[in-house]
Design brief:
2 copies of one chain form a homodimer.
Chain A (H helix, E strand, L loop, with lengths): L16 H12 L5 E2 L11 H12 L12 H15 L8 E3 L2 H12 L5 E6 L3 H10 L2 E6 L10 H6 L5 E7 L11 H14 L2 E5 L15 H4 L5 E6 L12 E4 L2 H14 L5 H11 L3 H23 L14 E2 L10 H12 L1 E2 L1 E2 L11 E4 L4 H18 L1
InterPro entries (chains A, B): Aminotransferase_I/II_large, AspAT/PAT-like, NHTrfase_class1_PyrdxlP-BS, PyrdxlP-dep_Trfase, PyrdxlP-dep_Trfase_major, PyrdxlP-dep_Trfase_small
GO molecular function, one term (chains A, B): transaminase activity
Cofactor (chains A, B): pyridoxal 5'-phosphate
């Protein structure tokens, strides 16, 4: 008899679906909505990236290619890693695929249903969603505002059991913007080594850092033993629509992930991969200029949010989000999100969508026009003041 | 302790990997190889498709979009289905994703590990690979040359058990080129209805038909109850590098597949989806012209293969392959493939890669230059004759 599989019971609805449905309804009714909920820069990619995509189409890069990625992109990733982290992985350690697929494939290749994966709370909603649909137990490590939203390695250690198969570490972090120190990262690497557990280092925001450096636990084993770097082009290069990312990891695991990707996807379109090469060759001054634009927007957003009664917002060191504390309003994060959407036309994500420790916070992506930030914060201030 | 999951044990190596490794070694050594093993036309897509991709990039269709696909493409798929099959699905019945992902997602959403899926033998290697890695039992229905490689619905019926959750039917078929009759298709639909089982109709080659019509079992329930149509742009529109396909099915199942795609992939790049709209709007005379080119190549390939002692090749009615019987050579299909690669520089796929009933046959994709077909067949003839 037909019916859905058990697996479908673990498929989560998009946790911010309620908000999104309301946003769409308001927009359909002709109302203007200031949208800060989507984790995407309101800035286009560099023209050279778009041109590289078009040139690859013209050059005939339009047929099946190796499921692990085209050789020139894999080599470019090796070179980029060497420049950024000081070690050069072998090409056989690199697989080209969307960043979300890396999360899914790593979990499926190293964790059985019923076993455990550890990550931070609040944390990226896709970790939660993937673990849920695979029947893997998600063990959470709280990250707290008083520790600048950095994961404490000793708290991580205390949660490891004989069922732990994978640790996910995220720096800079989504949704909080927290950035791990070098000492903390090395300690996480040490813990993974001592406990003999795989370590997925989600470095998707490694280019989104302000006045501090990016540290990766991968420097310890150079991704040869247990560390898998996840990165991609959506955040650092504003290329969300390309769906292009990569994994760097132990060659035997990368080979398994490649077999899986070949089976369910064949390959990433080659003309998209050429865009990735172009992005990795972006001149440093262009990257620096973009980061300084982002920083101005971050600072403006933090300043304006802190002018609103009941809200306190610390300055995040990385990523593309602010994660203000809204407990002073007396509202839950979901109530807050509903109120500012209805009364101020501002769309934000309730912190509770990222785990129970996100309660009392909301997430806003600040890579928007300055005017939009100013207007939205003014509207929120009025809405929240009127309420009291 | 770290180690791979149980799931990885079911990941199959690419069944034609031995051949491909040898092909690459020969090419690296500077030897010319006539490559007929890849299931891809040696013909570019229409210029309007490439232009549509570039125009979408210029128009800024470069951000996240709905995981089920952009509305204009989903509507175009509804319109195309109405023109081709006589019924118009609702937009909520359409999900845009790569064709291989449709196979993976349908199996995962309706079949539990240990339950059964039925498909033909020989059959598409991805059905075998997906069932294997998911721990799903693949139940095979032999398709035979004496029945023009059409699946016999009564043989299908006899293999249904109380564990059967999904039937996959493929017409035109890969690797044989067999095309089901209308009566057979309606009988398959009836069996699925009577037994209350999902039916995945793989129609990826529906545009690759010669002097006969395409019949879909979906006309019975209009994809509202149990039938899922799988289609895409790689074969009919020579757009393999775009990785663009779609599913049409019951809205509740499509919603589950969309949640899964959102979790592990987010969405298909929007500029790629615009290329799909352009492809669906290809003028009928252009499509007809291309099919007549394909037919000439098919006929040439069949003629030349039949001139080789030990080979008999029937004329396939659809798809882009010939599947000659090579038992007259006294070789297994793997031995044959190795011999013609080594002695004639011709790459073909052993029929045994598609299941045990493929033994005694090899697959060649004939959408190549005429000269390449003639030269390769001449070289095979010499190599096989010299041997005896």
């Amino acid at each position: 008899m037909k019916g859905f599989s058990k697996l479908t019971q673990g498929l989560l609805g998009q946790p911010m679906l309620d908000i999104l449905t309301n946003v769409c309804a308001l927009e359909a009714a002709g109302k203007k909505v200031y949208r800060f909920e989507v984790g995407d820069a309101n800035i286009d990619p560099y023209p050279h990236v778009i041109n590289a995509t078009k040139e690859a189409l013209d050059a005939g890069h339009i047929k099946y290619v190796d499921s692990l990625g085209i050789l020139p992109l894999r080599e470019a990733v090796c070179g980029y890693t060497e420049r950024k982290l000081g070690f050069r992985p072998a090409v056989s350690q690199v697989a080209v695929m969307p960043a979300n697929s890396v999360i899914d494939f790593v979990m499926r290749c190293v964790v059985n249903p019923g076993e455990e994966v550890i990550f931070s709370d609040p944390g990226f909603a896709v970790y939660i969603a993937v673990a849920s649909y695979l029947g893997i137990k998600a063990v959470k490590v709280p990250v707290r505002e008083e520790n600048e939203f950095r994961l404490n390695p000793e708290e991580l250690l205390s949660r490891i059991t004989d069922k732990t198969r994978l640790i996910i570490i995220t720096s800079p972090q989504n949704p909080t913007g927290g950035v791990m120190t070098e000492a903390e990262m090395l300690r996480v690497a040490e813990i993974a080594r001592e406990k003999d557990i795989y370590l997925l280092s989600d470095e998707i925001y490694a280019e989104n850092l302000y006045d501090c450096r990016h540290y990766s636990p991968a420097v310890v084993d150079q991704c040869r033993e247990r560390t898998i770097i996840l990165s991609g082009f959506s955040k650092g290069h504003s290329m969300s629509g390309w769906r292009l990312g990569y994994a760097i990891g132990p060659a035997d695991l990368i080979a398994k992930m490649g077999q899986m990707f070949e089976t369910v996807y064949t390959c990433v379109p080659p003309f998209i991969q050429y865009a990735g090469i172009s992005a990795l060759n972006t001149p440093a001054e262009l990257m620096a200029e973009r980061i300084s634009r982002y920083k101005k927007l971050r600072d403006l957003m933090v300043e304006k949010l802190n002018e609103i009664p009941g809200i306190t917002c610390s300055i995040p060191k990385g990523a593309i989000y602010v994660f203000p504390n809204i407990t002073g309003t007396g509202l839950t994060s979901k109530e807050f999100a509903q109120l500012v959407l209805e009364k101020a036309g501002v769309a934000v994500v309730p912190g509770s969508c990222f785990g129970e420790n996100g309660e009392g916070y909301v997430r806003l992506c600040y890579v928007r026009d300055e005017a939009m930030i100013t207007e939205a914060c003014a509207a929120m201030k009025i809405a929240l003041t009127a309420r009291g």
